[in-house]
Amino acid sequence: MSVHHRLFAATYDALSASVERRELAPRRARLLSGLTGTVVDVGAGTGANLRHFRHAERVILVEPDRYMRARLSSRLGESSVPVEVSCADAEHLPLPDGAADAVVFTLVLCSVPDQRLALLEARRVLKPGGTLAVLEHVRGQGRAARWQDRLDGLWGRCVAPGCHINRTTVASIGEAGFEFTEISRLEAPAVALATPIIAGTAKPSPTFR
After folding, report:
1. Is 145 helix (H, G, I), strand (E, B) or coil?
2. CA pair distance 50, 161, nearest whole angstrom
3. Which residues contact 44 (CB under 8 A, 6 or more apart)?
């Protein structure tokens, strides 16, 4: 991992505190508090989701970045439900087929190396009828989208390591065999190019092949 990764992990909570408090935390709460059974939090980062898991029987926190994982591990006491930390990555989740009741992606599908594989892996570990819960920034429209395309590489190198601001994540979720049951869209000027943000839940399509 580079110095940039270590610095990003060290400053992430402070830099995101304002938008987290105003915009993201309420959406995390609505999205996550009702999840039950075995929940997989993919790309758990520094642990922003921890206090929002209220009814899960078990939460597996998947975080491959060792600097993020160190900060995550120091916050495990914030969880009111049993949690465990895994160093696996999104493309290789540490569960057998059909073992999870819910898989969570919050601000991580922008940065996974292979978004399609990560979504297919989520589908693999989900039980039939399980829940995919997502809170993600996605490609905008019109002029905003064109700027995202132009600045995508610079953003991922200089602002947030590996992050892409122009991924068409909603379409990718459908292409991976999920059907949205609920979705909302938020324009968040405070995060500049990393907007709009979508929040929603989806189910595995029974007809997907």
Report:
1. helix
2. 23
3. 61, 62, 63, 68, 72, 85
Give residue 76's Cα distance to chain centre. Answer: 18
Can you name the residues that pair with 186 across neighbouring β-strands?
A: 197
Q: pLDDT tens across 93-112, in order?
A: 999 999 999 999 999 999 99
Torsion over CA of 87, 5, 90 and 78, rounded to 10 degrees?
Answer: 60
Q: Which of 105, 94, 102 is nearest to 56 (CA)?
A: 102
> Are the C-beta atoms of residues 24 and 135 closer than 8 Å to each other?
yes
CA separation for the pair 53, 33 (Å, rounded):
5
pTM metric for this prediction:
0.94
DSSP 42: E
